[in-house]
Amino acid sequence: MNEKFFDLKKEKQDRMINAALKIFALNGYQHACTDDIVREAAVSKGLLFHYFGSKLGVYEFVYDYSVRYLLLELSSTVDAGKTDLFTLMQQVECGKMHAMCGYPYLQQFLNRAQSENVSEALLATEEKRRQLEEAYEKIYARADLQSYT
Fold first, then answer.
1. Which terminal residue of the chain has fewer beta carbons within 10 Å of its beta carbon, N or C?
2. What confidence tens digit (pLDDT) does each residue in 48-67 have?
Protein backbone atom coordinates (compact mmCIF):
# COMPACT_ATOMS: atom_id res chain seq x y z
CA MET A 1 0.00 0.00 0.00
CA ASN A 2 1.12 3.49 -0.77
CA GLU A 3 1.71 5.32 2.52
CA LYS A 4 0.84 8.58 0.75
CA PHE A 5 -2.80 7.54 1.05
CA PHE A 6 -2.69 8.97 4.57
CA ASP A 7 -1.51 12.30 3.15
CA LEU A 8 -4.94 12.72 1.57
CA LYS A 9 -7.53 14.75 3.42
CA LYS A 10 -9.28 12.63 6.03
CA GLU A 11 -12.63 13.21 4.32
CA LYS A 12 -11.34 11.69 1.07
CA GLN A 13 -9.70 8.80 2.89
CA ASP A 14 -12.95 8.03 4.67
CA ARG A 15 -14.95 8.26 1.44
CA MET A 16 -12.67 5.71 -0.19
CA ILE A 17 -12.61 3.42 2.86
CA ASN A 18 -16.37 3.59 3.36
CA ALA A 19 -17.04 2.97 -0.33
CA ALA A 20 -14.80 -0.10 -0.34
CA LEU A 21 -16.31 -1.39 2.91
CA LYS A 22 -19.81 -1.02 1.49
CA ILE A 23 -19.12 -2.65 -1.87
CA PHE A 24 -17.19 -5.58 -0.36
CA ALA A 25 -19.76 -6.00 2.44
CA LEU A 26 -22.67 -6.14 0.02
CA ASN A 27 -21.01 -8.19 -2.73
CA GLY A 28 -18.12 -10.14 -1.26
CA TYR A 29 -14.65 -10.03 -2.75
CA GLN A 30 -15.36 -11.98 -5.92
CA HIS A 31 -18.39 -9.96 -7.00
CA ALA A 32 -17.20 -6.56 -5.84
CA CYS A 33 -16.28 -4.21 -8.66
CA THR A 34 -13.74 -1.40 -8.42
CA ASP A 35 -15.98 0.64 -10.73
CA ASP A 36 -18.64 0.56 -8.01
CA ILE A 37 -16.10 1.54 -5.35
CA VAL A 38 -14.86 4.58 -7.29
CA ARG A 39 -18.41 5.62 -8.14
CA GLU A 40 -19.45 5.37 -4.49
CA ALA A 41 -16.31 7.23 -3.33
CA ALA A 42 -16.55 9.85 -6.09
CA VAL A 43 -12.89 9.40 -7.04
CA SER A 44 -11.19 8.31 -10.23
CA LYS A 45 -10.25 4.71 -10.85
CA GLY A 46 -6.69 5.88 -11.46
CA LEU A 47 -6.56 7.36 -7.97
CA LEU A 48 -7.82 4.14 -6.40
CA PHE A 49 -5.22 2.09 -8.26
CA HIS A 50 -2.51 4.64 -7.53
CA TYR A 51 -2.94 4.06 -3.81
CA PHE A 52 -3.88 0.39 -3.72
CA GLY A 53 -2.63 -1.16 -6.95
CA SER A 54 -5.46 -3.63 -7.42
CA LYS A 55 -8.82 -4.80 -6.11
CA LEU A 56 -6.94 -7.19 -3.84
CA GLY A 57 -4.86 -4.27 -2.58
CA VAL A 58 -8.03 -2.36 -1.70
CA TYR A 59 -9.53 -5.40 0.02
CA GLU A 60 -6.39 -6.12 2.01
CA PHE A 61 -6.11 -2.47 3.05
CA VAL A 62 -9.72 -2.11 4.22
CA TYR A 63 -9.54 -5.42 6.08
CA ASP A 64 -6.35 -4.35 7.84
CA TYR A 65 -7.78 -0.89 8.53
CA SER A 66 -11.04 -2.34 9.86
CA VAL A 67 -9.30 -4.71 12.25
CA ARG A 68 -6.97 -1.99 13.54
CA TYR A 69 -9.82 0.47 13.97
CA LEU A 70 -12.06 -2.07 15.70
CA LEU A 71 -9.28 -3.19 18.03
CA LEU A 72 -8.66 0.44 18.95
CA GLU A 73 -12.36 0.89 19.76
CA LEU A 74 -12.44 -2.34 21.77
CA SER A 75 -9.39 -1.29 23.76
CA SER A 76 -11.21 1.87 24.83
CA THR A 77 -14.63 0.33 25.54
CA VAL A 78 -13.85 -3.06 27.09
CA ASP A 79 -12.85 -2.75 30.74
CA ALA A 80 -9.92 -5.08 31.47
CA GLY A 81 -11.17 -5.50 35.03
CA LYS A 82 -14.59 -6.86 34.12
CA THR A 83 -15.22 -10.60 34.23
CA ASP A 84 -18.99 -10.85 33.89
CA LEU A 85 -19.76 -12.46 30.53
CA PHE A 86 -22.75 -10.30 29.77
CA THR A 87 -20.90 -7.11 30.69
CA LEU A 88 -18.05 -8.13 28.37
CA MET A 89 -20.49 -8.91 25.58
CA GLN A 90 -22.17 -5.54 26.06
CA GLN A 91 -18.84 -3.70 26.01
CA VAL A 92 -17.73 -5.54 22.86
CA GLU A 93 -20.96 -4.58 21.13
CA CYS A 94 -20.51 -1.01 22.30
CA GLY A 95 -17.04 -0.98 20.74
CA LYS A 96 -18.45 -2.29 17.47
CA MET A 97 -21.13 0.41 17.50
CA HIS A 98 -18.53 3.11 18.09
CA ALA A 99 -16.54 1.82 15.12
CA MET A 100 -19.63 1.87 12.94
CA CYS A 101 -20.26 5.54 13.72
CA GLY A 102 -17.42 6.46 11.39
CA TYR A 103 -17.55 3.38 9.18
CA PRO A 104 -21.16 2.14 8.91
CA TYR A 105 -20.31 -0.97 6.87
CA LEU A 106 -17.28 -2.02 8.93
CA GLN A 107 -18.95 -4.80 10.90
CA GLN A 108 -20.96 -6.03 7.93
CA PHE A 109 -17.72 -6.15 5.93
CA LEU A 110 -15.91 -8.12 8.64
CA ASN A 111 -18.87 -10.50 8.93
CA ARG A 112 -18.93 -11.03 5.16
CA ALA A 113 -15.17 -11.59 5.15
CA GLN A 114 -15.67 -14.49 7.60
CA SER A 115 -17.48 -16.43 4.89
CA GLU A 116 -15.13 -15.39 2.09
CA ASN A 117 -14.04 -18.29 -0.10
CA VAL A 118 -11.69 -16.65 -2.61
CA SER A 119 -8.24 -17.95 -1.75
CA GLU A 120 -6.33 -14.78 -2.68
CA ALA A 121 -8.57 -12.70 -0.39
CA LEU A 122 -8.22 -15.25 2.42
CA LEU A 123 -4.45 -15.34 2.12
CA ALA A 124 -4.19 -11.54 2.03
CA THR A 125 -6.12 -11.19 5.29
CA GLU A 126 -4.97 -14.30 7.14
CA GLU A 127 -2.73 -12.56 9.67
CA LYS A 128 -5.29 -9.88 10.55
CA ARG A 129 -8.05 -12.51 10.84
CA ARG A 130 -5.96 -14.34 13.38
CA GLN A 131 -5.23 -11.11 15.24
CA LEU A 132 -8.95 -10.27 15.50
CA GLU A 133 -9.86 -13.78 16.65
CA GLU A 134 -7.13 -13.67 19.30
CA ALA A 135 -8.39 -10.31 20.55
CA TYR A 136 -11.91 -11.66 21.00
CA GLU A 137 -10.57 -14.83 22.65
CA LYS A 138 -8.50 -12.73 25.05
CA ILE A 139 -11.52 -10.62 26.01
CA TYR A 140 -13.84 -13.59 26.56
CA ALA A 141 -11.18 -15.67 28.33
CA ARG A 142 -11.60 -13.27 31.26
CA ALA A 143 -15.26 -14.21 31.63
CA ASP A 144 -16.09 -15.83 34.93
CA LEU A 145 -18.53 -18.51 33.90
CA GLN A 146 -18.75 -20.07 37.39
CA SER A 147 -21.47 -17.65 38.44
CA TYR A 148 -23.74 -18.99 35.67
CA THR A 149 -23.62 -22.65 36.70
1. C
2. 999 999 999 999 999 999 99
- Distance CA(139)–CA(95), nearest Å, equals 12
CA distance 149 to 140: 17
Asked whether the beta carbons of 95 and 78 are under 8 A apart, the reply is: yes
Q: What is the pLDDT of residues 94-130, one digit of tens each?
A: 999 999 999 999 999 999 999 999 999 999 999 999 9
Residues 6+ apart with CB under 8 A from 130: none
